[in-house]
């Protein structure tokens, strides 16, 4: 029922409908104005617009046209009556005073009570208790006495509402106050128990009446007969029919009930024969008999037979067919034959002038609305207006939904805001459509206002509508309204989904209202609502940003108890926050104790705390955890050793790192990963001298350093202008048989742009080796070209090809080549930039900075 996908495309979807002769064109001459903005204001003054060169009515004019049609109901008096009946005076007066106030207010309306008027009021009502209150009030007014018809009306209302206990109380109360009513007392009781689904009681009362020499009148006989058929008491049905025939009460209602009885017994052939017999005998039928049989045939999925019966009786012209037509249309629609129903309707309108009642129109427009057939729906609405069909609440709600679905939310909102003028009571579907469409249109405040009104009217939105509005409120940062929405939901026993709570808490955390988010989370815990993993992550990160590591740590433990596994980065974030608080050692120890007390200690758990302490630059805490592992009988693994070693290096505590390394060296042989960790860690803290010593030690012990070791050392040495040492490392790199990487080549080319002496170091240490053709010899030539020591006479494309033969190009390489060319040849640089893009390399910010700087350097400011 919800139209999120449609709403987002409503503007684009609507334009094909506005053709010259479309029903939407007829409705609003062809339409009303659309705003060209993405989020039009719903309350801006309407503007004229033109599609296909045709003038349009404004939204206000369309809304006024529908308001006039809705006002044709002219039920303001009935609305006032039920407004009074529904008024509660709790907290100010007792029940008796409230009752008196209602009586007084109704009396002041000056109502002229009659059977017809009372029936109209009862038929108009929707609330059972209000109908009962009016029935009671009317029965106590001087000059008016309830009739069998009014009693039957209130009994049917009670029966339809399935309030059997209330209905039985009503009948008992009627028995106790029989003297107050000037109606046939026994008839009312028999009718009452019959309608209440208590035929056995009704028959007992009927038997007592007959024993006393009393009898039912024609009306009561038929109510009893119909109730017996409804309760499948077919043996008694025949007895009552005979009684009716003996008393000469038989009429068209009797015959219709008899056909219904046969149909309920699945004796459809007999029912059809009975109907044909009535026609053959010349009985005057009112059409109700035919409609009962058509209804039964359709309910038994005998559509062709029902259609044939309708056609034959229509051709004979002996029976009014309006009721049968209406039922045939209803069943066609329910069976999925909407097109067939529309075709049937058009034929009957054209040939016979048939005009369906408002209920049949409602069935059609409701199904068209469900299937998004807006043109045909608009056509029917226009037809109803032109035919002066008085709309009811279903019609008005469907119209409201139509305007929402067609993207004309401003008209829908105007009708909604004027609902009190014509007694429109939006149903749940209309509220859902209106809220969803307003959210899709960006009118979040209006959507929220409509929601509050819907709750006040007793409607609570569907789960999807609630979710759409909640998402919109969170997205727009309207968190106070979102908070009110959640409170109202809980007050209405509606539990928002975990995803909705997650979005709300996330929005609160983004708005730095993490405490409010935590309070909501606590309330959910009280009702055993398990938060999602994402909710925990948002809360923990929010408290980390607020420097409340103690709460973040508590949530970290709680999320594990709820079945969520924290990531390594989450441990790091929480521990770093704890270590920034006062008494970090105590805070860290508390978290470790909580963790160990709630879960079985594992090596992975200890490693997570070592890693977190290292990132927090608290190596002493990392070492304590390392030693605790050993004391608790868990042997540290290589990962434990690497994390502890990195914790010292991150804090630049080189002596402690060396001491721990020696500690490990004494216990076992040091492998490649520990050496690599030491070299890379020393490079990151700019200690190239010590890193070189460890690299040489690795080589001396027969351990091959990783490529990352060489890359980090070369990068650090070049940044310190230790070019001889950097080139010497390349020679060593060559000895271990590794291919030169793009990273190493890019480092040398980058530094050669600003330091020509790097080429001198290269020639000094590799002069003899570079005489043989190799990638490294090519790299030496490129360093010379980039540093300016070698004059390049080759074409730009050839130079690019040379680089590609040396190592794979990337965006970084292109940037350096662009920088080199932009020093002297800006046109060549532009040509290279274009070719770089054609090859699929994505320019970055440095790329554009180089090009712009080059244009300014060459005085070409207009290009820059």
UniProtKB/TrEMBL annotation:
Keywords: Repeat. InterPro entries: PPR-containing_protein, PPR_rpt, TPR-like_helical_dom_sf. PPR repeats lie at residues 251-285, 286-320, 357-391, 392-426, 427-461, 462-496, 532-566, 602-636, 671-705, 810-843. PROSITE patterns: PPR. Pfam families: PPR (PF01535), PPR_2 (PF13041). Belongs to the PPR family. P subfamily. This is Pentatricopeptide repeat-containing protein.
């Amino acid at each position: 029922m919800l139209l999120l996908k449609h709403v987002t495309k409503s503007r684009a979807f609507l334009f094909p409908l506005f053709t010259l002769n479309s029903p939407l064109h007829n409705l609003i001459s062809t339409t009303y104005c659309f705003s060209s903005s993405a989020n039009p204001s719903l309350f801006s003054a309407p503007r004229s617009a033109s599609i296909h060169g045709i003038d349009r009515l404004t939204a206000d004019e369309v809304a006024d046209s529908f308001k006039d049609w809705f006002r044709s109901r002219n039920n303001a008096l009935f609305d006032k009556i039920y407004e009074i009946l529904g008024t509660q005076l709790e907290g100010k007066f007792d029940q008796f005073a409230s009752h008196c106030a209602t009586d007084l207010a109704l009396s002041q309306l000056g109502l002229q009570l009659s059977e017809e008027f009372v029936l109209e009021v009862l038929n108009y009502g929707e609330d059972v208790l209000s109908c009962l209150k009016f029935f009671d009030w009317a029965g106590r007014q001087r000059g008016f006495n309830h009739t069998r018809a009014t009693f039957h009306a209130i009994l049917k209302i009670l029966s339809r509402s399935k309030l059997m206990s209330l209905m039985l109380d009503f009948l008992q109360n009627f028995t106790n106050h029989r003297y107050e009513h000037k109606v046939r007392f026994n008839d009312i009781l028999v009718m009452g128990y019959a309608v209440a689904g208590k035929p056995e009681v009704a028959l007992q009362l009927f038997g007592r009446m007959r024993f006393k020499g009393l009898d039912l009148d024609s009306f009561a006989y038929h109510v009893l007969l119909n109730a017996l058929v409804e309760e499948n008491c077919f043996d008694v049905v025949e007895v009552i029919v005979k009684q009716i025939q003996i008393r000469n009460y038989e009429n068209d209602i009797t015959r219709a009930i008899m056909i219904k009885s046969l149909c309920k017994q699945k004796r459809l052939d007999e029912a059809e024969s009975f109907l044909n017999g009535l026609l053959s005998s010349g009985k005057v039928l009112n059409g109700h008999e035919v409609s009962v049989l058509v209804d039964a045939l359709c309910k038994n999925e005998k559509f062709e037979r029902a259609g044939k019966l309708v056609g034959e009786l229509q051709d004979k012209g002996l029976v009014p067919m309006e009721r049968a037509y209406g039922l045939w249309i209803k069943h066609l629609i329910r069976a999925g034959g909407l097109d067939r129903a529309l075709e049937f309707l058009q034929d009957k309108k054209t040939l016979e002038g048939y005009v369906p009642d408002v209920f049949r129109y409602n069935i059609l427009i409701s199904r068209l609305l469900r299937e998004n057939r807006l043109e045909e729906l608009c056509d029917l609405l226009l037809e109803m207006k032109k035919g002066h069909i008085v709309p009811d609440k279903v019609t008005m709600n469907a119209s409201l939904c139509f305007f929402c679905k067609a993207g004309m939310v401003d008209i829908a909102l105007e009708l909604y805001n004027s609902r009190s003028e014509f007694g429109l009571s939006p149903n749940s579907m209309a509220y859902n459509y209106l809220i969803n469409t307003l959210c899709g249109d960006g009118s979040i405040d209006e959507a929220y206002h409509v929601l509050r009104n819907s709750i006040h009217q007793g409607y609570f939105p569907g789960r999807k509508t609630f979710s759409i509005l909640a998402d919109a409120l969170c997205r727009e940062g309207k968190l106070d309204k979102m908070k009110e929405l959640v409170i109202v939901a809980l007050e209405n026993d509606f539990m928002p989904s975990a995803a909705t709570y997650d979005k709300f808490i996330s929005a609160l955390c983004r708005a730095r209202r993490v405490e409010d988010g935590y309070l909501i989370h606590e309330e959910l815990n009280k009702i055993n609502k398990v938060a999602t993993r994402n909710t925990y992550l948002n809360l923990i990160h929010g408290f980390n940003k607020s420097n409340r590591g103690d709460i973040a740590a508590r949530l970290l433990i709680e999320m594990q108890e709820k079945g969520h596994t924290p990531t390594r980065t989450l441990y790091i974030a929480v521990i770093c926050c704890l270590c920034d608080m006062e008494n970090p050692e105590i805070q860290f120890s508390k978290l470790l104790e909580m963790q160990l007390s709630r879960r079985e200690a594992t090596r992975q758990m200890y490693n997570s705390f070592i890693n977190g302490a290292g990132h927090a630059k608290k190596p002493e805490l990392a070492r304590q955890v390392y030693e605790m592992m050993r004391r608790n009988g868990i042997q540290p693994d290589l990962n434990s050793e690497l994390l502890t070693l990195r914790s010292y290096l991150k804090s630049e505590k080189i002596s402690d790192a060396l001491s721990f390394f020696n500690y490990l060296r004494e216990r076992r042989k040091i492998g490649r990963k520990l050496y690599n960790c030491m070299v890379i860690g020393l490079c990151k803290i700019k200690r190239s001298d010590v890193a070189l010593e460890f690299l040489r030690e690795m080589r001396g012990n027969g351990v091959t350093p990783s490529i990352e070791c060489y890359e980090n050392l070369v990068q650090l040495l070049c940044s310190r202008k230790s070019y001889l040492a950097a080139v010497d490392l390349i020679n060593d790199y060559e000895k271990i048989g590794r291919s030169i990487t793009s990273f190493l080549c890019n480092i040398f080319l980058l530094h050669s742009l600003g330091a020509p002496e790097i080429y001198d170091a290269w020639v000094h240490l590799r002069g003899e080796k570079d005489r043989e053709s190799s990638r490294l010899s090519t790299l030496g030539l490129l360093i010379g070209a980039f540093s300016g020591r070698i004059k390049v006479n080759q074409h730009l494309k050839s130079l690019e090809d040379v680089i590609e033969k040396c190592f794979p190009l990337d965006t970084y390489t292109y940037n350096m080549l662009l920088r080199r060319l932009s020093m002297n040849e800006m046109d060549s640089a532009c040509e290279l930039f274009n070719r770089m893009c054609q090859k699929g390399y994505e320019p970055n910010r440095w790329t554009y900075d180089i090009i712009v700087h080059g244009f300014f350097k060459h005085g070409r400011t207009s290009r820059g």
